[in-house]
Amino acid sequence: MHQMIENKIQPLLNYISQYVELTDTEKQLLLSKVLYRKYLKGQYVLQQGDICKYECFVLKGCTKMFHVDETGQEHILLFSIEDWWTADMGSFITQAPSDFNVMCLETTELAIFHHDSIETLYKEIPKLERFFRQVIEKAFAASQKRIVRNFSLSAKDRYIYFKTQYPLIEQRIPQYMVASYLGITKEFLSKIKKQLLLDN
Amino acid sequence: MHQMIENKIQPLLNYISQYVELTDTEKQLLLSKVLYRKYLKGQYVLQQGDICKYECFVLKGCTKMFHVDETGQEHILLFSIEDWWTADMGSFITQAPSDFNVMCLETTELAIFHHDSIETLYKEIPKLERFFRQVIEKAFAASQKRIVRNFSLSAKDRYIYFKTQYPLIEQRIPQYMVASYLGITKEFLSKIKKQLLLDN
DNA sequence: TTAAAAAGTTAATCTAGTTTAACATTATTT
DNA sequence: AAATAATGTTAAACTAGATTAACTTTTTAA
Q1: Are B137 and A136 in contact (CB < 8 Å)?
Q2: Quick one: which of B34, B45, B40 has its CA closest to B8?
Q3: Separation between Cα atoms, residue B76 and residue B182, nearest integer Å
Q4: Within 13 Å of residue A164, how many CA atoms lie on the same side as its CB?
Q5: Domain holding B129: CATH number?
Q6: Is the CB of B178 under 7 A from strand C?
Q7: Which residues touch strand D (CB under 7 A)?
Q8: Which residue of A91, A198, B56, B77 has the smallest Cβ count within 10 Å?
């Protein structure tokens, strides 16, 4: 039973096992609640203005989470590759319209926790509450540090940090999206890269 | 028993009751683990380079959490007043040296969860794990939105947002700290305020 | 295999916000 | 009440990064 989904979401099970150990019963319950879905490149998992119904774990592929401001400019908050999460936590917990879009940059397979079933899961598998608490703690800590980096580092240093911190991501996405993630224009990132070449 | 601390940390108990309902036994257990401490204006709750041992709930007073960069510049991440939290989550969960300072801007009373006792609390009162998960979810969502605002809004608009969102905080702290929180210089904030006066 | 679309580069001009430095005002301490 | 420290203001000169626009390279699709 659930054999097919179990194979597909194996990376999620491995990931969870880094935090908590599930019994077979718990694992079966989890499998009955977690959804698997495959998206094509360019498809939206979430759109600005919609309510975020899912917390998504990336099994395979790559997504970007971004906000489009009043001037039409796109601001990328997050790239999510294998073993990372994507969702608008604010919209998910309040069930209010989201400020963010999540779009697939490659063919992407997700393990999805639906808002309607996550409470049941927490109640029936308290370990999962522990698991999510820890995952969110990590994400929150990373987010705080990013705010400070954005204040204290120059665009050049932020780029260097990004390169060293996420070398795998840089190879999978166009440069103009890196610029957006760093909060600068593609033209300026181009300038920075040229300068870094000259430095060496 | 615990009568004294119960009185002192009453605001924390009220706050928790917005999320979960504790039995009397659970409350007593909580009281036996939570610390109460009063700090004077100017005292540090946490210093950059130290390991963050506490998650602190502000019962009364006001703190700032900030990072000092290599050039000696101070970057304020967070002001915490009554019913809000302060801690370097990153350092707390990894028990690695912190990048942040937490300093009291007024005489401040804190309810303190020590790293050594929080695991026990989670185990003995699973509801508290639920409580903290929800608190952190909210903080994480706020942090993500702040990153986007910092990218998409001008300094002027960020200040207007701050004013409307945290009118009480603005009245309690010097203007140059607001500037630091917004990621701009005090001189430029001064300019912005003058311009806003002229606008009306 | 070629056209079209998407992504990246370059350089000139411009601007939001910084730096510096001098001065003004408000709190705090004696 | 005076002295000192802390906070806030103003203005001129400066700079990191944006904008605009023309161009090149790479990728995708017909």
Answers
A1: yes
A2: B34
A3: 8
A4: 5
A5: 2.60.120.10
A6: no
A7: A 154-156, 183-185, 187-188; B 174-177, 186-187, 189-191, 193-194
A8: A198
Comparing CB atoms, the residue among B90, B137, B148 nearest residue A93 is B137
* A102 lies in the same domain as A197: no
Q: Does B75 touch chain A (CB under 8 A)?
A: yes
Residues near A46 by Cβ (< 8 Å), separated by ≥ 6? A52, A54, A65, A87, A88, A98, A100, A101, A102
Query: Which one-letter amino acid corresponds to residue B127?
Result: K
> Under DSSP, is residue A143 helix (H, G, I), strand (E, B) or coil?
helix
Interface test with B, best of A70, A76, A137, A180 (most B CBs within 10 A): A137
Q: What is the pLDDT of residues A115-145, one digit of tens each?
A: 999 999 999 999 999 999 999 999 999 999 9
Beta strands in A81-170 (DSSP E): 85-86, 101-104, 108-114
Give the gap in angstroms from C-alpha A181 to the nearest C-alpha of chain B: 9
Are residues A78 and A128 part of one domain? yes
Q: For residue A81, what pLDDT is reported?
A: 97
Same domain, B14 and B111: yes
CA diameter of chain A: 59
Q: With contact defined as beta carbons under 8 Å apart, do A124 and A29 qualify?
A: yes
Q: Which two tokens stand for residue A154?
A: 């120059």
Contacts of A134 in chain B (CB under 8 A): 93
Find, among B154, B70, B141, the residue nearest to A99 by Cα. B141
Assess whether pLDDT exceeds 80 at residue B200: no
Q: Please report, in angstroms and rounded to a whole number, the separation of the first and last CA atoms in chain B.
A: 57
pLDDT digits (tens, 9 = 90+) for B31-51: 999 999 999 999 999 999 999
pLDDT tens digits for range B184-195? 999 999 999 999
Interface membership of A73 toward B (CB under 8 Å): yes
Cβ-Cβ contacts under 8 Å, B130 against chain A: 122, 129
Domain match, A80 and A162 both? no
CA distance B94 to B180: 27
Instruction: Give residue A1's pLDDT band: very low, low, confident or very high (50, 70, 90).
Output: low
